Amino acid sequence: NAGVTQTPKFQVLKTGQSMTLQCAQDMNHEYMSWYRQDPGMGLRLIHYSVGAGITDQGEVPNGYNVSRSTTEDFPLRLLSAAPSQTSVYFCASSRGTAKSSYNEQFFGPGTRLTVL
Amino acid sequence: GDSVTQMEGPVTLSEEAFLTINCTYTATGYPSLFWYVQYPGEGLQLLLKATKADDKGSNKGFEATYRKETTSFHLEKGSVQVSDSAVYFCALSDQPSGTYKYIFGTGTRLKVLA
Hints:
The complex is a heterodimer. By secondary structure, chain A is mostly beta strands. Chain A contains no helices and eleven strands. In chain A, the strands form two sheets. In chain A, strands 2, 4, 5, 6, 9, 10 and 11 form a seven-stranded mixed sheet that branches. In chain A, strand 5 and strand 6 form a beta hairpin. The radius of gyration of chain A is 13 Å and the shape is globular. Chain B is mainly β. Chain B is built from no helices and twelve strands. In chain B, strands 2, 5, 6, 10, 11 and 12 form a six-stranded mixed sheet that branches. In chain B, strand 7 and strand 8 form a beta hairpin. The radius of gyration of chain B is 14 Å and the shape is globular. Chains A and B meet through strand 4, strand 5 and strand 10 of A and strand 6, strand 10 and strand 11 of B.
């Protein structure tokens, strides 16, 4: 099992550019999520999905879109990058469904994004 | 709303010292509690977890007990090693009003000196 994979590892964008951060898992997990990690703020939830075709907003969704067409993939789209989106982005997955709140999350290695 | 508060770092210890990282939480439901560890340049890994009151999670010499009466989940290790240097995150998962929530603390950086 590769676990949770993310691409790219590093990315530099100019303000206004768009891009997609890729996330895939091979564990047949129902729950997937995207977080951003900023100094002194821990991890903040951007969007999450409890299954294919179902997504919902987290704590900081503005400026980001997601879709979940398959169980395996959960891409995060930045529509028009802003310097405030400079951060490290982590994708995570877990076995749990919306009614299973105790399952551990498995994290990808992260994408370090800089917006100039 | 739900929240997790953990002690600020960095925490600097000598090898073989005793470690405590404090974590307290607020939750509307009956959450499960976790400690995650993040080594430099990597994603988070689950260190231990507890799903109900008085449960003790343990792994790699680390322990934490779910204390419902004090809403706490403090992380402890009796003798730290240089290889324990990392950032530690306390987290909870809860499902108030049917919405799945997974909330992290801000992280505590631990540095262990040889």
